Amino acid sequence: MKKGPDISVSVAGIQMKNPVMTASGTFGYGQEFTPVLDLNTLGGIIVKGLSLKPSPGNPPPRIVETSGGILNAIGLENIGLDAFIEEKLPFLRTINTPIILNIYGRDLYEYTELVTRVDQIEGIAGIEVNISCPNVKAGGIVFGSDPKLAFELIGSVRKRTQLPLIVKLSPNVTDIAVIARSVEEAGADAVSLINTIIGMAVDVETRRPRLASITGGLSGPPIKPVALRMVWEVVNAVKIPVIGGGGIMNASDALEFLIVGARAVQVGTANLVNPRVTNAIIKGIEEYLKQKNIYNIVQLVGSLIV
């Protein structure tokens, strides 16, 4: 039997059987998808963002459909780190897939405390530091919008762990490459981008915002061209690996990100449309490589012809 193409990748020292990861948020804590998806097939699982203490998130309504995408203002609702360790982590440790914790802090202290505690947990492959959530009133995007604050934050958490550090970048900035270079200099092992783009929706009958928090983060197909451009810019600005995401709905979308230089991809909104979409994307990437006689996915990464 002819051996298929090698689609395994290494990102920031994390060895993955393929480049398809779940983005933090729409995949919950992983176990929710087990009735319909074998989690062992995934390249990596990034769990729903965690804070030190449980958070109820924003008041409803906090998610609405728009033309082609989704506008959300969940506000990082989560069970908190302690409950995650006790209730969710035991199951995740049984999965033969790298588990990456997405963390969020409201200030520098919370970020550093989170990283310090996560560093002591067995069975974690890496940490994704979220400095890009647009739906909270403190922290997050405040750090992700200012290169000096981003440098200070990542430099601080870098001292607290030897685990691979991935930094989730915001598209809601003037120059995302500047932020990427700043966190690279501070010690980040990789960057992931993009998070959602700030948007708004109005009910014309009531003339009120459709979200209780007025604005929210736009995700889904409409943001893919923006995400692709930003990934390309960052790939050309830093030496650390780049993980691409934003509007990936199928294998063709994922391939675009790989071609412009992303080492791996994150699938978010598509999980809400089709809970098995990650498997379809993995198979689609394999088929593409076979058709193009590409024997190792590394040959595809960054192969854009200009």
Helix content, binned percent: 25-40%
Looking at CATH, which topology would you report?
A: TIM Barrel
CATH architecture: Alpha-Beta Barrel
Q: What is the arithmetic mean of pLDDT?
A: 96
Broad structural category = alpha/beta
Walk me through what this model shows.
The structure is a single chain. This protein has one domain: TIM Barrel. The chain is globular and about 55 Å long. It has an eight-stranded parallel barrel with strand order 3-4-7-8-9-10-15-16, surrounded by five helices. The N and C termini lie far apart (37 Å). Strand 15 (242-245), helix 7 (251-259) and strand 16 form a beta-alpha-beta unit. The chain contains nine helices and 16 strands. By secondary structure, it is α/β, with parallel strands linked by helices.
What is this entry, summarized?
The chain has 306 residues and is of the alpha/beta class. The protein has helices at residues 81-92, 108-118, 141-144, 147-158, 176-186, 224-235, 251-259, 270-273, 277-291; strands at 9-11, 14-16, 20-22, 44-46, 63-66, 69-72, 99-103, 126-130, 165-168, 190-193, 197-200, 202-203, 208-209, 215-219, 242-245, 264-267.
